Amino acid sequence: MNIDIIQVTIILSAVVVLFVTGWTRMDIIPLLIPAALVITGLVAAEEVFLGFSSSAVITVASLFVITTGLVRTGVVNRVADSLNHLTGKSNLRLMLAGTALPGMVAGFIIVTATVLFFIPTLIRMAYQAGVSRSRLLLPLVSSCLLGANLTLIGASHNLVANSLVENSLGYGFSLFEFMPLGILLLLVSVIYNVFLGWRLLPAGELDNSKPDLGKTNLVKTYGLDDRLWEIWVQDQSPAVGKSIIEIGLGERFGLCVVAVVRSDKQLAVEHKDLRIQSGDILLVLGREDMISDLVKKEGLFLAGHPREHKRLPLSTAELVEVVVPPRSPVIGKTLTELNFREKTGLSGIALWREGSPRRTDVGSVALKEGDGLLLFGDRSKTRSFKPGKSFRWLNAPRKEESPPELRSFGPWAVLILVLVIFSAAMNWLPVAVAAVTGASAMVMIGILKPREIYASIEWNVIILIGCLYPLGLALYNSGASALLAENLLIISNHNPQVVLAVIALISILLTQPLHNVAAAVIMTPVALNAAQVLGSNPKTFVMAVIIGASAAFMMPTGHPMSLLVQKPGNYQLKDYLKYGAGLGLLVLLIIIIVVPLIWPFYAG
Q1: Is 441 a residue whose pLDDT tops 60?
Q2: CB-CB neighbours of 509 under 10 Å
Q3: How far apart are CA 334 and CA 294, in angstroms?
């Protein structure tokens, strides 16, 4: 064993230990790799950052931009919302739609974005169907991870492995070369989740009970921790069809309805003809015991406190805060006099004055300079509200994901994605060039502004790929991957089927404590060396790495999306292992049996 192999083994071991133990932030670890490779002389200083110019990095960054364009024009949200029409109250259809459709989307849009935009949809559907969200979220992630293998561009580690193959062999995989195997993997994932997977996950908290949504800073600041509640009206609720007076919210329960949100519109609660409908969201002021009594007697759903600036919104409403600036034209006037609710669609919930909150009769208080005003309304209203000279933002709403003015660009965004895929599939353009052109088109036709390009890219993923990339080259150039491949061949007695199985198993195991990009970087050189010694088809063994690294659902650390669902799904490590072991075994069997049929070991 030469000194280069020893050095690269030490660096690799240190990276694995840091990833597994969490002694330092996961996004810092990759930044340490270039320095280690240059100091040891494994990679020249002028070459250590070549990974950032690789086709994998360029393609992934461009796909983030294209995905943002699809989101900003409302395309992704419309696809997610279509799930509601597919499922109804059927648990079977809920699981089918919650795994099959997101899995298909993940084949063409980066996995991270796909999961992020399907999570709130599935949580809302779980509430409506009375199903624990714990039994939906991990199946969503696993189906997206496996469905990403429908195309080359579905997952970042696909592109990284392909880039390493191109550098080594001079050729790589075509855009749709994965599709037959990707379809099988997604189908297996859907069947597994529908019939078995959800049973292995915790029943958790049923969605007709109060979940722990957390209390927002604004709720605490204004002293509304036990006063302000968001209630959803369910289909079978006795309140459906009744007016607020008929329900007796004030007389029977001692509560005050502040606002009613229906289909993205805030309704005036004072209107005598207002009748409660299924799906309405009520913002109610009152004590928690009174709220609980109302929910129990009227068959309503208590969602908890309204939230602002959260990544996974569960309703269409939010809280924001403004302040009255000097020389404001609203000074001395009340919200009622300003017809504030009628003009803006927002309700004044509480007032902050002279260091303390005021929570009652806010509409009749004459405003003063420096007053803080807590507002509640539908997100379309809060995000279209223009403070002008009258107010200034203290806690502004999160940026609208799909502004109304951009929704007409939806067909153009879809056309751009289709052209990117088609031009790459027909070999008119390399995948990276097609993706960059598509990202540029998003800006040229006005879907995104130039500065939004940089905000749309997940830079932690780009840095991870760019910094890990030279580690893969060091493994290959030092002979470490060849040494590991030789040992695998000795153990397997040069049987290609056994070598394939071992490479797949190691890839599956490595991706659990590490990121799947790291697993692909480590194992792709090993797969290439094994194929070279055997005189076999290198694609066969590289596919074992790619598919094995896709099975990143047996630990929360395998992929950022596996970690993201841990808290909302209330998962523990044992839940990941119990759920993922069976599906991981199926993935391993598919690699061993099916991969050699599509990519034979030997030509002819």
Answers
A1: yes
A2: 15
A3: 31
The residue assigned the tokens 């006037």 is: 333
Q: Is the pTM of this model over 0.85?
A: no
Q: List, for residues 198-234, the tens digit of each pLDDT value.
A: 889 887 654 443 333 333 467 777 877 667 788 888 7
In which element (H, E) is residue 59 found? helix 55-72
Exposed e or buried b for every residue in 422-450, given b needs 16+ CB within 10 A? ebbbeeebbbbbbbbbbbebbbeeebbee
Cβ–Cβ under 8 Å, residues 199 and 559: no
> How far apart (Å, rounded) are the C-alpha atoms in residues 317 and 337?
24
Using CA atoms, how far residue 463 sits from 61, 198, 284, 517, in Å, is 11, 35, 46, 11
Tokens of 114: 């796909």
Given its phi and psi angles, is residue 571 left (phi above 0), alpha (psi -120 to 50 degrees) or beta? beta
CATH of 317-402, one of 3.30.70.100, 3.40.50.970, 3.30.70.1450, 3.30.420.40: 3.30.70.1450
Ranked by mean pLDDT, which of 265-274, 572-581, 589-598 comes out on top? 589-598
Instruction: Write the CB contacts of 526 (distance below 8 Å, at least 6 apart in sequence).
Output: 475, 481, 484, 485, 488, 503, 506, 545
Q: Name residue, tokens 């949504």.
A: 213
Q: Locate the domains of the chain by residue range.
A: 64-206+407-458, 217-304, 317-402
Using N-to-C axis directions, what is the helix angle for 480-491 and 459-478, rounded to 10°? 70
Q: What is the DSSP string of 485-505?
A: HHHHHHHTTT-HHHHHHHHHH
Q: Which fold has domain 217-304?
A: Alpha-Beta Plaits (3.30.70)
Q: Decide if 475 contacts 529 (C-beta within 8 A).
A: no
Do residues 336 and 363 lie in contact, with contact meaning Cβ atoms separated by under 8 Å?
Answer: yes
Which runs of E-coded beta strand occur in 281-334? Answer: 281-285, 300-304, 317-323
The two domains 217-304 and 317-402 share their CATH topology (first three levels equal): yes
pLDDT grade, residue 329 (50/70/90)?
Answer: very high
pLDDT digits over 352-387, tens only?
Answer: 988 888 877 788 899 999 999 988 877 777 877 888
What are the tens digits of pLDDT across the range 9-63?
888 888 878 877 777 777 788 888 889 989 988 888 888 888 888 888 888 888 8
Task: List strand residue ranges (DSSP E) for 522-571, in order.
Answer: none
Whether pLDDT at 596 is above 90: yes
